[in-house]
UniProtKB/TrEMBL annotation:
Record-given protein name: NADP-dependent 3-hydroxy acid dehydrogenase YdfG
GO molecular function, one term: oxidoreductase activity, acting on the CH-OH group of donors, NAD or NADP as acceptor
Family: Belongs to the short-chain dehydrogenases/reductases (SDR) family.
InterPro entries for this protein: NAD(P)-bd_dom_sf, SDR_fam
UniProt cross-references to SUPFAM superfamilies, sorted A to Z: NAD(P)-binding Rossmann-fold domains
Keywords: Oxidoreductase
Oxidoreductase as UniProt keyword: yes
Length: 267
């Protein structure tokens, strides 16, 4: 731990501070925005800097009580992540690390599994989370009341045909999160896992289906109200704002219309 962190005032005496990954779009963006609206100082991590700038501008325009600071980088780039951690530590540390970055590529069955897609998903979901946790855990431990929130998926607990690569990646991230929870309890770092089911965001299915907009629309066809990025953001922020001794350690959330992975009500 750096001198700066040890000598800094307790971070929770000042505005609360978070690092949120995946903040260029979807659930990550909505979570960063909601935190800023509730007064948090947010380092918004994503690969697309213009989108992060736009998010920071929106937060400023809204005169949100908190702020968004763009931190453009790829969460699997260990050197860039370490550099950000050094900067954040020097600026006072953080109360929470919120790992939202990730996603799906492809829907092939195992028999036709695309190694490139599988590698991408493992890197983005599992290794990205590892890289961020490794860099930020020292300051979260020093904080004394830090939190890590990992966004996994219901795909981390239920497999489905065509989901294997994504199931494997999300189950991997889920396993990492469970071990982290055990390892960090004695360091007073709270570990929260949020596992959403069907969430209609602008990019999740589009990217998974290689940019095929018609196929992406079909995923949500007839579903009256899939979850939105804002629904998930609200749950993440709620879990983070609960008193530190209260740990919603695994939050499974689905739209009402998705009773189970295989049972979706379409009207
Ligand atoms: C996304 C949920 O149902 O597509 O994380 O696997 S699902």
């Amino acid at each position: 731990m750096t001198e700066t962190m040890n000598s800094a005032p307790h971070p929770s005496a000042a505005p609360r501070r978070a690092v949120v990954t995946g903040a260029s779009a979807g659930i990550g963006r909505a979570t960063a925005l909601e935190l800023a609206r509730r007064g948090w100082h947010v380092y918004a991590v994503g690969r697309r800097s213009e989108r992060l700038d736009e998010l920071a501008a929106q937060t400023a325009d809204e005169q949100a009580p908190g702020a968004v600071v763009p931190a453009p980088l790829d969460v699997t780039d260990a050197a860039a992540v370490e550099a950000l951690a050094g900067r954040v530590a020097a600026e006072g540390g953080v109360d929470a690390l919120v790992n939202i970055a990730g996603g799906a590529r492809g829907t092939e069955h195992v028999a036709a599994g695309d190694t490139e897609n599988w590698e991408w998903m493992y890197r983005a979901n599992v290794l990205g989370t590892l890289t961020m946790c490794r860099a930020f855990l020292p300051m979260l431990r020093a904080h004394g009341r830090g939190s890590v929130l990992n966004l996994t998926s219901t795909a981390a607990i239920v497999a489905y045909e065509g989901g294997a690569g994504y199931n494997a990646a999300k189950m991997g991230q889920h396993g990492l999160t469970a071990a982290l929870c055990l390892e960090e309890a004695e360091h007073d770092v709270r570990v929260i896992e949020v596992l959403p089911g069907m969430v209609h965001t602008e990019e999740f299915s589009l990217r998974r289906l290689g940019g095929d907009a018609a196929a992406a629309d079909k995923v949500y066809a007839g579903v009256e109200k899939p979850l939105t990025a804002e629904d998930v953001a609200e749950v993440c922020v709620h879990a983070l704002e609960l008193p530190h001794h209260v740990n919603l350690d695994q939050i499974v959330m689905r739209p009402l219309a998705q009773a189970a992975q295989h049972k979706v009500i379409r009207r």
